[in-house]
Amino acid sequence: MEGPETEPLTASTGSIQGNSHAKIAAAQELFPEEDDEDILLQAVVFVEDAIHYRSIHHRVDRRSLRLYRLYYSNWVQWGMYAAISVLLVLAFFERPSSLSYTSDTQTLFINRNGTNQTNQWDPPCGVTESIELFCLLIFLADFVVKTYLVGKEKFLKSPWLIAYVLILLVSLLDWMATLGVLCIVPVPGTSHYRSVLRIRRFFRPFFLLQNSSLMKKTVNCIKRTLPEIFAVLVLQFLHVYFFTIVGMLLFSEPVGSTAGGNNSSWVPVDPGATGVSDPNFHSLWNAFITLLVLLTTANNPDVTMTAYSHNRLYAVYFILFLAIGLYLLFNMMTAVIYNQFRGYLQSSLQGSFFRRRVAVRAAFEVLSQQNKEVELSTNSGGDCVRVSTIYHVIEKVSLPKSAERRITEKLGRDMFGTYNAAQFQAVFDLLDLDYQVHHRPPLPAFRHSWLQFLQKMIAHRYFEYLCCAVALSNILTVSILLTIEYDQLNATNSDLELLNFVFVVYYLVEQCLKFVLLGWRYYRIRKTYIFDALVTFGLVIVEVMTLVEYGSPFSGLDRKDEVETVIELWDLIRITNILIMFRLLRVISLFKTMSLVLSTLLDLIKNMRAFAGILVVIYYFFAILGIEIFSGVTNYETFRTVNVTCGSYQQLNYWANNFNDFASALVVLWDVMVVNNWMVFLFAYKDALSTGWAQLFFIVWWLVSVVVYVNCFIALVLENFITKWDKSNAIKEEQEDEGRSRTLSFTEVRVESVHHLFRSGLTEPKEEELLEEIRKHQHLEIKV
To answer: Which Gene3D superfamilies does its entry note (predicted)?
Structure first.
């Protein structure tokens, strides 16, 4: 949104109009900086602590505060994340390396032709270890600085800092221990060295966790939710176990005979027999795993067919099992996780909100101490701070631009005044503003009546409906032509090429009319207009390339074979129609629910850093664990003849799905997380290691990734959507009560962070609590 025009500041009016930078400059001119530098620096740091929900309990002398600001500067923090990213990415390059064109062990075995050579490239010995040591030393320096800033007492009270130093020590010791044997034991017949167990790789995700306060809060909330999850899981376990025993009793009576005594080949006999023998229920463990997989519907209806084919009444058993386990207990678990996780997260964010309030109040207290020397006071006799002093603080603080603009606009109305604690707090409440009102700029004025009529027509909402109708008709005609004339689409005079040309010309004319008649200021605040302009620009470029390469689509001649072209006509047609499909998204803006769903999705992408980080952590840990347990056990040359059946790992050619390197391990974990056909991995790795305990790895992964993580993510999605929906309705009702015209302004609801999701449910701390927390500060010497 374009800011208001800047006008000169006059001392007589005492008001400032203009953008934030002009206001700050004017404040400096009117009020030369006479504030104590140390006091200002303390206030600046406390305000920055409030912005980022940080604790104020750190050293406050000038040297420490400068180090503190340097430590939390953007480039240092980005450097930390870069070091963490490099350390995590090393897993793709370390032995066993993921640098190969495929992970398919069958393809690799065939291509080797018995030479025992692989396409895998391992970095020179010691390269990745040197990079890892450099990253660990950066983390060690980070720990030293962080511990110095918070002090010894705070360090001893922080479990995360204690864990930080312990994991650093273990990682460095493990690095030194494995370095001595890393390049000693070669793989026979190759130039590679055997991989050794590196315990420190399991701890790498911790460095990502400890560097994000929101991620740590989320982990703590998940940990506190686990008891309630465990209670429902126990109920689910009893449900599966009950049906396991019932299934073994129902499906244990044989109705046929075996050929040659071989139980693996079943020959059914009398159809009128009273029982059925289902091999899935011949052992307790196998029956339990079968029903557990059925609970995810991955093996439905395959696992039911043996019994159901014998007697249709057996379907009741499986229907009851899924109805209770899948539709009742699983949905109950989702409800429990949503309720408990949301409650714990809100409680945790209440602590963050309290820290923000404490930090703002601490900034006010240190500034008011300075003002006491010149005996400034409000009408009520309380402590206060000059507005000019707040300007000096705002100038030095790293604020988001939108928040800086709102704050300086508020301060500009009270240039010569003073603020008490409540007013000071109200200034920084603007940081929590989760919506923004966009005032529509006036339309350009035209003298000619026909231009005024055309402008009025294009600005009307019915014109937007017409544009969407044209886009829909474009999509429908493209779909019809793709269906009935697919084989003729590569000709230069095809109907699809003609259709594309006509619609692209229409889109270009539409955008030009909007831009000229509505004006740039009006045009730029409509996101749908900008989106349409970008898509139309791409369409015009592709259509111009088509005209240059193949000539006019109205020529009636097929010139495809007569000219030398740089790009194929079909490629141009495909690009054009893909861009046309994107224009269909503009329809979303016409439907409130669709628009709200899309905006919720965009907000989730912005606010998913904590959840995405936790997903990286669990994927990384389980991938490393899977490599250590299952690396090489499903290689083609050794596993191709082991228990091959219909639907098995070998029969489905799952050879690329293995734990032979980090990248392929991530893919296997994703496949299991999706749960489709995950029973193939359960039984394949059980056969490979000849033990049912191997299946526990995949069961635990399913519980962690699907049952816990996905349900917590669902809770975040629900909360985000409900918050935006309620806020949108509340703002709409408020505007209707005020009689504000939708043509003059529109309100954009924003969810800038997870904190904004729960802002309405957070309670304001009492003033006594804020002052008590400030008094506990070991390094702050002020009277409150």
So the answer is: 1.10.287.70, Voltage-gated potassium channels. Chain C
Rounded to 10 degrees, the C-alpha dihedral 607/611/616/618 comes to 180
Structure-token match 């707040």, residue found: 390
Which residue's entry shows tokens 């918050």?
723
pLDDT for res 462: 83
Strand partners, 748: 436
Contact 276, 307 (CB under 8 A): yes
Domain boundaries, the chain: 449-557+564-590, 592-751
Mean pLDDT for all residues in the chain: 79
Q: Following DSSP, what letter does each residue of 362-427 receive, concatenated?
A: HHHHHHHHHHHTTT---TTS---EEHHHHHHHHHHS---HHHHHHHHHHHHTTTT-EE-HHHHHHH
CATH 1.10.287 fits 592-751, yes or no: yes
Other CB atoms within a 10 A radius of the CB of residue 686 amount to 19
Cα–Cα distances in angstroms (integers) from residue 74 to residues 80, 211, 579, in the given order: 10, 13, 37
Other residues' Cβ atoms within 10 Å of the Cβ of residue 75: 9
User: pTM to 2 decimals?
Assistant: 0.80
- The 10s digit of each residue's pLDDT in 403-426 is 777 788 777 777 667 888 888 888
Query: Following DSSP, what letter does each residue of 245-302 receive, concatenated?
Result: HHHHHHSBS--EEEGGG-TTSEEE--TT-S--B-GGGSSHHHHHHHHHHHHTTTTTTG
Residue 640 tokens, joined = 């191709």
Strand partners, 268: 256
One-letter amino acid at 778 equals: Q
Q: What's the rounded Cα separation, in Å, for the pair 151 and 138? A: 20
Answer with the residue of higher pLDDT: 284 or 113.
284
* Phi, psi values for residue 418, rounded to 5°: -130, 155
Each residue's pLDDT tens digit, 293-322:
999 999 889 889 888 888 889 999 999 999
Phi, psi of 386 (to 5 degrees): -65, 145
Task: Write out the two tokens for 349.
Answer: 């964010």
Give the number of residues written for the chain.
784
**Cβ contact 236:325 at 8 Å:** yes
Residue 168: is its pLDDT beyond 90? Answer: yes
**Residue 439: strand pairing partners:** 745
pLDDT surpasses 80 at 594: no
Q: What is the C-alpha to C-alpha distance for residues 653 and 527, in angstroms, rounded to an integer?
A: 47
The gap from C-alpha 596 to its chain's centroid, in whole angstroms, comes to 18
Cα 512 from Cα 510, distance rounded (Å): 6
* C-beta neighbour count of 657 within 10 angstroms: 23
CATH number assigned to the domain covering 449-557+564-590: 1.20.120
**Which residue carries 């007013």 as its tokens?**
423
Average pLDDT of the segment spanning 115-131: 73
- The Cα-based distances of 423 to 222, 349, 393 in angstroms read 37, 24, 15
CB proximity list for 446: less than 8 A, separation 6 or greater: 452, 455, 517
Give the relative orientation of helices 330-372 and 767-775 as an angle to the nearest 10 degrees: 70
Q: Which residues, in sequence order, are CB contacts of 452 under 8 Å at separation 6+?
A: 446
211-246: per-residue pLDDT in tens? 988 888 888 888 888 888 888 999 999 999 999 999
Residue 68 predicted with pLDDT over 60: yes
Measure the N-to-C terminal CA separation of the chain; round to a whole number of Å.
41
Distance CA 553, CA 472 (A): 23
Show the 3-state SS of 187-250.
CCCCCCECCCCCCHHHHHHHHHHHCCHHHHHHHHHHHHHHHHHHHHHHHHHHHHHHHHHHHHHH
Rounded Cα–Cα distance for residues 248 and 283 (Å): 8
Asked if residues 666 and 623 have their Cβ atoms less than 8 Å apart, the reply is yes
